[in-house]
Structures are given as C-alpha cells and as structure tokens.
Amino acid sequence: MTPDTSIQYLPGVGPKRAALLQSELEISTVWDLVRLYPFRYIDRSSIVRIADVHPDLAQVQVRATVQKVRLYAKNGAEIPADKLKYNLVSRLSAMVADESGEMEMVFFKGVKWMHTRLVPGSTFIFFGKPAVFGNRLNMVHPEVDAPDNGVSGVLTGVYPSTEKLKNAGITGKVMNRLMSTALAEVLPAVQETLPDYVLREKGLAPLTFALRQIHFPQDQDALAKASYRLKFEELFLLQLSLLKQKYVRSRSAVGLNMPAVGEAFNACYNALPYELTGAQKRVIREIREDMRSGHQMNRLLQGDVGSGKTMVAVLSALIAVGNGYQACIMAPTEVLSQQHYANVTKYLKPTGVHCALLTGTTTAARRREIHAGLRDGSIGILIGTHALIEDTVQFKALGLAIVDEQHRFGVEQRARLWNKGYNAIPPHVLVMTATPIPRTLAMTLYGDLDVSVIDQMPPGRKPVTTLCVGETKRHAMHNFIRDEIAKGRQAFMVYPLIFESEKMDYKNLQLGYEEIVKAFPMPRYKVAIVHGQQTPQEKSFNMDAFVAGRADILVSTTVIEVGVDVPNASVMVIESAERFGLSQLHQLRGRVGRGAERSYCILMRGNKVSKESQKRLDLLCATENGFELAEEDMKMRGPGDLEGTMQSGLPISLNIASLAKDGLILSDARAYAQHILDGDPTLSQQKNAPLQQELQRDKYQTKDYSKIS
Questions:
Q1: DSSP per residue, 549-590
Q2: Which residues pair with 137 in a beta bridge?
Q3: Which pairs from 658-666 meet CB under 8 Å and 24+ separation?
Q4: Does residue 512 register a pLDDT over 90?
Q5: Rounded to two decimals, what is the model's pTM?
Q6: Rounded CA gap, 540 and 530, in Å?
Q7: Secondary structure (3-state) at 602
Q8: Smallest Cα–Cα separation from 705: which of 643, 636, 639, 651?
Q9: 187 vs 447, which has greater pLDDT?
Q10: Is residue 601 within 8 Å of residue 633, measured between CB atoms?
Q11: Sequence-distant (≥ 6) Cβ neighbours of residue 135 within 8 angstroms
C-alpha cells in the first residue's frame, strides 16, 4: 500500500466510511489520513482511585472490578434475568469497585455487547467523564479496555470529528485504530521531505519519527520534538514557496517604467494644506522606487484607520499620470467609492487631472462618456467599485491599479484588473488595507508582496476616548449625545443585526431605530438610517444627509465600517459590542476622531457577556494601536476568524501550525527559507532537490498570488 492509495482500501474503512471521511474531513488517500493530526491529547498515563474521583475532573481512568450489572426498561423498572429481551432494555448499569470505593458505569447504547462483556468479577480499565446522578458517582458511556491492552501509560490523540462521523460509528477509538493501521502500512514507504543538511542545521527529527510520535507519542518530550518538526516543515515550505515566487517574479515580471514624478504630482504636493508625516513620505519613496525599477510593483500598504493612505494613493496615481499613464482606484462599496471620489477630486484641483467615478448606479449616458474618456486618455484617474473590471471598461494606458480593502474582492475579480494593462504589460499594483494585519499573518497572506506600513498618525488627530457601559447607562448615554449635538456635533449608532433573530435577544436595527427616534424626536433632531437591505439610492440619500450635516444621528449596521469620513461626527455608539471582533470594533471606532474635536466611542454591552468578550472590550478601551489589537485578536480567536473570511486567502491550508501561536517558528522558518534562496534562488542545486520536489506538489501549485492580491 502506498501513501496515494485510496482510503477505502485501508483495512477497517471500505466504500461507505471512505465516502464519509471524504465529505466530512476531506480525506481521500491514506496519506491524507496520516496528515490529519490530533488537536489535543488525553493523558492516560495515570490510574485514579475511585475515592479521589470527583465530578469537576475532565476525564479520568479507573481500574475496577465489576460487582453487579442491572438492566432497566424505559419505564425505569429493572428487568429480571429470566425475562430478558434486549429490545426492551433502555439502560445498563454496572456497579464497579476498587479498594477505595465504588461507582456506577451507565450505558444506553451497545447494551447487549456490554452485558456479555461486563461479567461480575472481571476487571477493566474505565475511562470517561465523571458525573454525579442521584448522589451517586457515575460515568456515562466510558471507554472500556482490558487491563493488559497497553492503553494506560500513553498519550491518546483526539482527532477532529463531526456528528455524522460519530453517528456512523467512526468514534475517537476507531480513528486511533485506523491511524495505527495507516502508519503501519505507509511509514516504510515514506520519503524524507527535507534535505539532510536542513535536518542537521535546524536540529529537526526525521519525518518517520515525527509522524509516529505525533499520533502515538511515547512521552511529552517525543511529542514536542514531533510537533516542532512538523510545524517547522509546514511553515518553512510555505515561506519557501512564496519567497521563491517573489524572486522569480522580481527577475522576470517586466513593469512599466515611470522615471519621472511629473508636474501634476508637484502641483498637488505643493498645494497640500499640511505637511505629510514621515511615514507617508517614506512609503511614497518606496512606491516611487518600485515604479521606476522596470519591474512590476506588487506592494501592500498597511495603515491604521485615519493614517493618510488616501493621500498616498492620490500621489502614487499622479506619478502614473505624470509618466503618461492612467490609474484606477477600486473600492469595495459604492459609499466608499463616492467618498474616495470626493476626496481625490479635492486634491486634484491644482493639477488639472481629470478624474471620473464609475459604480453600479452610474447612468448609461455617463458610462458612455467615461468609456470614451478612458479610451482617448482624457480621464487620468478612474475611481469605482467592481464595475471597473467589466469587459466594457477599456483604458488607453492603465499603469497603476490601486485596490482598497482588497480582502473584500474575490480573487478572480481582482485578476481581471491586471489584464487591462498597457501593451499586455500588467499595471503596477498597490493593495491598501486599513485592517491591521498581524505580522505573522501578513507574512503568510502576503509573503510574496513587498509591505509598506504607515505607522504614524497625521498631526491633529486626537485620541478617541473609549468607554464600555451596560444597559443601566443608556439614559445617560442619550443625554451625552444630546449635549454633543447641542455643540453642533453628530453621532453614529451601529447595530449588529437588521432583523429580529429568534435565538438572540440582541438589539436589532429596526427596534433601535424606533427607540432612537423616540429619544430624539423631530423636528429638533433628525435621524437617518443605513443598512444592507436598502437600495443603493436609499443608502446614498441617507448617507449624504449625514455627511452633509442634515442629519444629527446615523443609525446603521456595519455598512459604515470602512472608510466613511465625517469629520463632524464625534460620537460612535456600538450596540451589543460583545458581538463584534476586535478588528471590527477598531475599524468602527476609526469613523470618529477625524475632525479637530474630542471624540468618543461608547461600547454598549449586553447583560450576559462571556469572559473572552469582556476581555476584548477591555482591550479596546486600553489601546488605540490597531496592530497591537490585531495581534491580540488573532491570539484570542485564531486566524481563521479574523475579519470574517479574510483568511480564505491563505495560499495553502495549514494542518498543524497555527499563525496565532507559532509566530516564532514562522519567523525562523521564513528567515531560513530566505537564507537558502540567497544561495540557490531556483533550488537547482542537487542538495535542494527534495525541496524542489516538495514545491511541485499540488498544495503549492497555487495561482500566482502576487498578481491577484
């Protein structure tokens, strides 16, 4: 049997179980099974005396002798032995004892098998979760093993499972048995994946040792060695793949050469009402170097909310225009596109560069004008939503594509932008995000991009005071908003839901809106509402009313999370704040504090808040540093949940390493991968043949993420 053998041919599997393992855990070969690692281990190395067992213990193992076995019917009556019919039995109770005391073992399933096995006088090892029922200590459905089967004294792996697998009889015990068979079958044929010199230099255990010990560790030390070897290999090969791709691209990807800065750039720069921050200047220098290098720029620009990314985008676009090319800025929502358009047009006034806005609601007549202007080159900068990637949109000479909040666009959508380059040469690419990405995640999601970070706030941005309050303070919160409105300010009120959810008692938008209108009645106060169920026209109308100051309060869902800029808004109230992730709360908070006035973010929490949610809210109150919050968020929630589905962009799925917990291993693996590529950029040396072979596996044959991020 080879590692590529179909899982159905592994003894104990068969076609039915194979179909389930494929649909539930994506296991189709024996090798897939071997690469399914335990997510935790049960320590079965100690036997506990019954007298020391108590219900607070997670799981215990007792060695005890069966004293008496009783069978009960559904009505609770005991069934005498002479009237036994198994189809009438609903429960089996076995009293077992050791020298220190006795307890009950209860079974509702497999009763016939247990009844024939648990013969009074026989001794077994029982393993399970202790509980108390009717003042008696018991275990429901414990695992039952003979004392000599070698179970005690080992760490037992617990594998990912689902309800369907359990119902089909593929229990934890069965998984352990299948894993043991799989290892016996394929370990002799397993080839080492890393070169000898890598194992030696990094002090890594051999692959066969690591695979055996990760599934059936002989002790904690062997488990630690196995775990480190497999995590390092996974992160190292991932980084090697990304860095090699980056190296190949930087050598081969021809880019449009833009040597000049141009008059438009200078006119805009000299007319700025304020000095750029040192961080903004540094980032513009980095972008400028890329654009005149002769290679295609692929740069990620990270900057916290309000750090001045739009200004950098405008100046970068003007470099393209100054060299005779066009630029486009693609944003995920109509609201954000309109806002970019308003800001950019303002900055372009002294330059004479023509800018246009293209979204789903642009009229047919205006579309025709824009298409003509793009084709003849009279439009220098185009701003819009994914309407930009429609086939009908053709540029005369697209030289720079800027994608804002890129994780909101599908990979295929973004790829279509690159085909619009001049003379079949892809445009330079600048990806912007205001979602601070933890370093470990950035290394993996964008390992093949150059990263620029704006880590300074523009002068004049005042810190936002963040408070977390409960329901009892609602009246005081309303009074506070009235005081702010009296000073001429505005307030956001954000809700997590649109329609009432039967299962949750969170405040929803409709109820909240009614409550706010009651507390802030017309004509003295004006309240606007924006949510995802509205038409783009309704959304625009209400949003514009708030932006223009015609509405005092904007009641909204998280539609306003990204990019909406209302300098006059000084209060952000987030309802049921415990329902949001840290990154999202931080993004929402960034909507205020954009003007010269002191601003506030009020986190309204429910009455029942978990410890973890409270920790998130406390953290938000303690710091405004988005990168710090993102690191903490990932530690608390794991990378898969950060910013919703952002991590669906991971180039490969990780089987054992965790970006949240294994940051040090990742940094070491990346540095080592870089060290190897410095000496052998194409991995063509004989000693690196195993690495070249590994990178040709399907999992590393990803689309070229450098071109589509």
A1: TS-SEEEE-GGGSSS---TTEEEEEETTGGGS-HHHHHHHHT
A2: 132
A3: 659/438, 659/440, 659/441, 659/444, 659/634, 660/440, 660/634, 660/635, 661/635, 662/231, 662/235, 662/440, 663/438, 663/439, 663/440, 665/228, 665/231, 665/232, 665/235, 666/235, 666/239, 666/440, 666/443, 666/444
A4: no
A5: 0.60
A6: 9
A7: strand
A8: 651
A9: 187
A10: no
A11: none
The Cα 134–Cα 74 span in angstroms is 18
pLDDT at 610: 83
For 422, other C-beta atoms within 10 Å of its C-beta total 16
Q: CA of 76: how far to CAs of 73, 88, 89, 648, in Å? A: 5, 11, 10, 52
- Evaluate if residue 68 carries a pLDDT over 80: yes
Gap between the Cα atoms of 385 and 394, Å rounded: 15
Backbone angles phi, psi at 209, to 5 degrees: -60, -45
Helix, coil or strand: residue 491: strand
**SS3 state at 461:** coil
With beta carbons less than 8 A apart as the criterion, state whether 71 and 92 touch: yes
Distance CA 79, CA 98 (A): 26
Question: Which residue, 381, 397, 401, 377, is CA-closest to 389?
Answer: 401
Q: Using an 8 Å Cβ cutoff, are 384 and 410 in contact?
A: no
Give the containing element (helix H, strand E) for 60: strand 60-73
3-state secondary structure of 136: strand
Strands (E), 114-158: 123-128, 130-133, 136-140, 143-145, 155-158
pLDDT in tens, 521-574: 999 999 999 887 788 788 888 888 998 899 999 998 876 655 567 888 999 999
3-state secondary structure of 390: coil
Tokens standing for 175?
């998984």
The pairing of strands 136-140 and 130-133 is antiparallel
Per-residue pLDDT at 156 exceeds 70: yes
* Angle, vertex CA 580, rays to CA 575 and CA 585, nearest 5: 85
For residue 567, what are its two tokens?
Answer: 């300098």
CB under 8 Å to 505, separation ≥6 — which residues? 606
Report the distance separating Cα 96 and Cα 122, nearest Å. Answer: 10
Residues 6+ apart with CB under 8 A from 185: 1, 5, 10, 30
- Tell me the percentage of the chain whose pLDDT exceeds 70: 87
Q: In the chain, count of helices (H) and strands (E)?
A: 24, 22
Nearest alpha carbon to residue 179 among 153, 148, 213, 225: 213
Q: What is the pLDDT of residues 640-677, one digit of tens each?
A: 443 333 334 455 567 888 776 787 888 899 899 999 99
Q: Read out DSSP for 338-384?
A: HHHHHHHHHHHTTTT--EEEE-TT--HHHHHHHHHHHHHT---EEEE
Q: Rounded to the nearest 10 degrees, what angle do helices 334-348 and 536-547 cross at? A: 50
Using CA atoms, how far residue 273 sits from 270, 459, 671, in Å, is 9, 12, 42
Q: What angle do CA 347, 350, 355 make, to 5 degrees?
A: 55
Pairing of strands 355-358, 101-107: unpaired
- SS3 assignment, position 326: strand
Identify the residue whose tokens are 């929803």: 508
The alpha-carbon radius of gyration of the chain (Å, integer) is 31
Give 195's strand partners: none
Q: Token pair for residue 209?
A: 């040792």
- 3-state SS class at 97: strand
CB 406 within 8 A of CB 329: no
Report DSSP letters for 399-424, one per residue: EEEEEESGGGS-HHHHHHHHTTBGGG
Q: What sign for the dihedral angle of Cα 99, 104, 108, 113? A: positive
